[in-house]
Write a structure and sequence with these properties.
About 60% of the residues lie in helices and about 0% in strands. With about 270 residues, the protein is mainly α. It has one domain (about 25-265): Four Helix Bundle (Hemerythrin (Met), subunit A), CATH 1.20.120.1760.
Length: about 270
């Protein structure tokens, strides 16, 4: 009777395992997002801040696609998750900090690079906390300002000032304050709506499509102003939601699952 084993394979020895591969499509999108961040840094080094900000926004769009594509094609993997985090650190952590520093923060000397470093460090801390708390955070909200939105605020301000031909030296301290605000807001426990409960597979009323068309038309009036304005509203919305919940006596934490693990203590405060 055949027991399913290879007679030529000695007992006690395992057959060689097939090497695990990686999924091409979502990881190609992640690599493209990483290139957007790298391109932004190179353009900033060459004084092309308009193209540098475009690189950050392109990385944002691609970053929003890789996870959705992986879920739609059922190609999620631990490798893809780690690759996405590393790409985010470059595109939304290091790149905005370096662009802001090269654009005007360097004029502040020590204070300039401190602000840039605080932003970069907070982006790293925010991404690390996101990876650790994935299983306990309410999916409808982000814990702290998401790094792509923080990068959009920094890059969007530079893009807007460049379009309006405002000399960087006139808004150096504004850039300093904005860099610190976005960096520190990333590591707060303030809840920001994640839009993850919006499904592309569900049917929507016809009016929703009309609103999307109107939104595209409004953005095209003057993209730098409109986009920066939208991200300013989003960047402040978390604090509005936080104080609204607090005034209603509702829990302000986005932690949705209790745990007694030592490394999770204090998350529910």
């Amino acid at each position: 009777m055949h027991d399913g084993t290879d007679p030529q394979t000695p007992i006690g020895e395992d057959r060689p395992r097939r090497p695990k591969g990686i999924y091409m499509l979502p990881n190609m999108i992640t690599l493209a997002a990483l290139f957007g961040g790298f391109y932004a840094v190179v353009m900033a080094m060459n004084g092309r801040y308009d193209l540098a900000t475009v690189g950050v926004f392109v990385a944002m769009v691609l970053d929003s696609l890789d996870g959705r594509v992986a879920r739609l094609t059922n190609t999620q993997s631990a490798f893809g998750e780690q690759m996405d985090s590393l790409s985010d650190m470059v595109s939304f952590g290091a790149a905005p900090a370096l662009i802001a520093y090269e654009w005007t923060l360097r004029d502040l000397g020590r204070w300039g690079w401190i602000a840039a470093f605080v932003y970069c460090a907070c982006a790293a801390l925010r991404l690390a906390r996101f990876n650790v708390n994935t299983g306990v955070v309410d999916k409808r909200y982000f814990q702290g300002l998401p790094s792509p939105a923080a990068a959009a605020l920094v890059a969007g301000f530079i893009w807007l000032m460049t379009e309006l031909e405002v000399p960087p030296q006139e808004v150096t301290w504004v850039m300093f304050a904005l860099t610190l605000y976005t960096g520190l807001t990333m590591v707060t426990n303030v809840p920001f709506y994640s839009f993850k409960d919006l499904s592309l597979r569900k049917s929507v009323p016809f009016a929703a499509i009309v609103l999307v068309a109107l939104a595209i038309a409004v953005i095209n009036i003057h993209p730098p102003t409109v986009l920066f304005g939208l991200f300013v509203i989003y960047g402040l919305s978390g604090y509005g939601l936080y104080f609204w919940r607090k005034s209603k006596g509702r829990p302000t934490s986005v932690i949705s699952t209790s745990t007694d693990e030592p490394d999770e203590r204090g998350l529910h405060d």
